[in-house]
Design a protein that fits this description.
By secondary structure, the protein is of the alpha/beta class. It folds into two domains: 129 residues, Rossmann fold (3-Layer(aba) Sandwich); 161 residues, 2-Layer Sandwich (Alpha-Beta Plaits). 46% of the residues lie in helices and 19% in strands. The chain is built from ten helices and ten strands. The strands form two sheets. Strands 2-1-3-4-5 form a five-stranded parallel sheet, sandwiched between helices. β3, α3 and β4 form a beta-alpha-beta unit. The radius of gyration is 24 Å and the shape is elongated.
Length: 313
């Protein structure tokens, strides 16, 4: 989710309004401050607003700060948010409990403004640097779009989400550039790289939802993961991608299908369940892509499996 401000965001979780006001006054000039007085609201805010850091009170009604921290560390959307416990309990045993729960630091009351600002700045800086390194690790160096590792992580998360939601279709597109080896051999690797870059950008701009992911799958192959998408919606996207790439009119005199670059696409749709793994979806898409290539290329092959069961494993 995009931030509404260029400032880093701090979420303050405390059931005492006075404490929230004190912390907000200390941090408000440097950070965008959000607050929650109830544990469940804190979890909802953390998921929807994706703050850069959370200041967590320990003693709260219903669910203490340690339990809230553990819950946030279990969620894919919030597990990487650093949490600093803020409490009057300064004994070593409480600090140890906080670190075991997943906290990164511990600040005791009464709050010393300089100490709090220093701790917050340190952990936000570390998170920003970590986010940058993670983004680099999950981005394809040539095309600038997500890489295979990124796709695998995204698919794993969406598979789990789909199971939780129940009866929610998950679709995948596996895309291959037709006769790309011939393209590379005759036009050169530099032209081949530029071709892949153009195709990657076209696939990305063909997506209509922020919830979808396009990635470089490897070599001249690309993939799209489409949450909550039935087979017809996935086929429509595949056709749009094919049409948009043809509109680029990238010359390919050595293709057997057309004198421009074209695509073959396998489209697979499943309703995930806990008896299968995300690999099923990619295996299906790969088999369908193979069929598209075997039967003349420049085409789309599709299939769906209800409930995640079938003979594609």
């Amino acid at each position: 989710m995009e931030r509404a401000s260029s400032k880093s965001t701090v979420l303050i979780v405390d059931d005492e309004q006075t404490t929230i006001e004190v912390l907000a006054k200390i941090l408000g000039s440097e950070y965008r401050v959000l607050f929650a007085t109830q544990p469940n609201h804190a979890i909802e805010l953390a998921q929807s607003k994706c703050p850069d850091l959370i200041l967590m009170d320990v003693l709260m009604p219903g669910m203490d700060g340690y339990a809230v921290c553990k819950r946030l560390k279990e969620l894919d959307t919030t597990k990487d948010i650093p949490i600093i416990f803020v409490t009057a309990m300064g004994e070593e045993q409480f600090e140890e409990t906080g670190f075991i729960a997943g906290g990164v630091d511990y600040v005791t009351k009464p709050i010393r403004p300089f100490v709090l600002r220093s701790r917050v700045k340190t952990h936000i800086d570390l998170k920003i640097k970590g986010d940058m390194l993670r983004e680099i690790a999950l981005t394809d160096g040539l095309t600038g779009i997500p890489n295979r590792r990124n796709l695998d992580e995204f698919l794993q998360a969406e598979w789990k989400r789909s199971i939780r939601q129940g009866e929610s279709s998950l679709s995948a597109l596996l895309i291959d550039v037709d006769y790309f080896k011939r393209f590379n051999d005759h036009y050169g690797h530099q032209a081949g790289d530029q071709c892949l870059i153009q195709i990657a950008r076209t696939i990305m701009t063909s997506l209509e939802r922020d919830t979808d992911l396009a990635a470089r799958y490897g070599g001249e192959e690309f993939a799209c993961i489409l949450p909550v998408t039935p087979v017809n919606g996935a086929i429509n996207l595949a056709r749009r991608i094919q049409d948009n790439v043809e509109k680029l009119r990238i010359e390919h005199d050595f293709s057997d299908v057309k004198k421009i670059v074209t695509l073959s696409i396998g489209v697979a749709t499943v309703i995930p369940n806990s008896n299968e793994t995300p690999r099923l979806l990619l295996t299906m898409a790969d088999k369908l892509l193979y069929e598209a290539k075997k039967n003349g290329r420049n085409q789309i092959r599709h299939d769906q499996v209800v409930g995640g069961a079938g003979d594609f494993s």
